[in-house]
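A.,

Following up on our hallway conversation. Structure tokens first:
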């Protein structure tokens, strides 16, 4: 088996603050706080580690926050190989109000990446050793064009890797031109991509099939509690999770990507990989703040994921 690499160009320290109740114009006392290494594909790395799948995380880090992020990954047993930049890694803040269960999320923009730092990352990708899967996700840092995604995907294919791309907007449009093997838009992102409202399953399927015809092997469309739709040229499946008490949705999509990659890495069929994706994403919603899925929750939920075969050709 080759190595799995994850790439997060704009990682963050995610700081979760727990407050009993938020009150205006007074000093709100923090009852708990936690910090995590965060960013879309860093979350993928962390969930893969829960599944005991080794991987290496890449991206840009800088300053004290960047050093803390690397240290936290190291403590979690995750290898990393970040490019150091002159700016400071961003800190995102999530405030969780215990009495109501409400969350407020504040995302920072992050440091500017210089052209020579960008080139250093590309050289790292070109020197990947036996890459099997490359997972790319998250926002672009200041100073970086969406073209970076097309470049990384092209290099990944040249090295014989399968590539998963989880971005949106202009970055997704540009990245699609290099034909990643898998993308995971939600319905809103897919609607934006195809330029029309997708208000029923038939329209979602039609939009995903358009992307298949443009060379995207697998389109995963996340639909919150309604599950995840998998559309490829040979099969179309819907996996639906059981009803759960949702405490948080942050990181659920990233966990779903990790669950699917877990299936890919174990050479499971697409049905099983999709069920892993749904179970991992749903397991993360059981955890408050920016905490991610745990194995015991994943195993329990997986037993209750319902799979529907929409179409299938041998």
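Then the amino acids I'd put at each of the 314 positions:
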């Amino acid at each position: 088996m080759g190595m799995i690499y994850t790439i997060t160009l704009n990682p963050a320290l995610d700081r979760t603050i727990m407050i009993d109740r938020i009150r205006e114009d007074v000093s709100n006392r923090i009852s708990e706080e936690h910090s995590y290494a965060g960013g879309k594909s860093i979350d993928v790395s962390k969930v893969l580690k829960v599944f005991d799948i080794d991987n290496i995380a890449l991206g840009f880090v800088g300053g004290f926050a960047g050093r803390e992020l690397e240290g936290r990954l190291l403590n979690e047993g995750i290898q990393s190989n970040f490019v150091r930049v002159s700016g400071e890694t961003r800190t995102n803040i999530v405030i969780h109000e215990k009495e109501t269960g409400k969350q407020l999320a504040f995302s920072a923009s992050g440091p500017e990446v210089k052209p020579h730092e960008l080139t250093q990352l590309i050289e790292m990708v070109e020197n990947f050793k036996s890459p099997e899967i490359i997972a790319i996700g998250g926002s672009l840092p200041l100073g970086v064009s969406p073209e970076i995604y097309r470049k990384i995907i092209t290099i990944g294919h040249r090295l014989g890797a399968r590539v998963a791309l989880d971005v949106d907007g202009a970055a997704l449009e540009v990245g699609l031109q290099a034909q990643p093997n898998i993308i995971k838009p939600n319905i809103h992102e897919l609607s934006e991509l195809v330029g029309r409202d997708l208000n029923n399953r038939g329209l979602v399927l039609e939009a995903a099939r358009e992307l298949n015809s443009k060379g995207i092997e697998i389109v995963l469309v996340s639909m919150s509690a309604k599950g995840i739709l998998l559309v490829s040229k040979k099969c179309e499946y819907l996996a639906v999770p059981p009803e759960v008490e949702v405490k948080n949705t942050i990181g659920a999509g990233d966990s779903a990507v990790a669950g699917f990659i877990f299936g890919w890495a174990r050479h499971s069929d697409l049905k099983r990989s999709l069920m892993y994706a749904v179970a991992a994403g749903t397991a993360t919603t059981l955890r408050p703040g920016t905490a991610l899925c745990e194995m015991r929750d994943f195993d329990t939920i997986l037993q209750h994921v319902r799979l529907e075969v929409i179409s299938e050709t041998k």
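The domain at 3-21+32-312 is CATH 3.40.1190.20 (UDP-N-acetylmuramoyl-L-alanine:D-glutamate ligase). Curious whether your intuition agrees with the design.

B.
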